[in-house]
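Quick one: structure tokens for this chain, please?
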Amino acid sequence: MNKKTVSKAIPCRFEFIRMVRINSNLHQSGVTLIELIISMVIISISLTGIFTVMNLTVSHSADPVTYHQAISIAEACIEEILLEPYASLSSCSLSNVPTNYSVSSSIGVESALSGIPAKKILVTVSSGNTSIELTGYRTNY
């Protein structure tokens, strides 16, 4: 007896898996152009806010330095006036004042301060939009 072998065309289930793998390779992961543009807009808005605050901070960071320098100049001027004898008090004549500062001083008329003769000394130091006024009294005792 002769047996004949019959071969049938049986669909291979591996063909489906192979097609799925090919199709899954075609699906790429990543960001779309719209997502990229939206993220760039959000980042640029955030950076604009940060740089605005930094600019404001840096532009005002010199103000305390100017303020402290003006106070130091005013204190030096008032100390110079207070070291003079009471009878010959004169205006401040500091020689080493920086060029961007202007100093003015005035000595008031003699008045009684708690029954003691005293003169009011007013020193004003200005630089740009910063102006400092110091007041002191020199008594005759």
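DSSP finds three helices and three strands in the chain.
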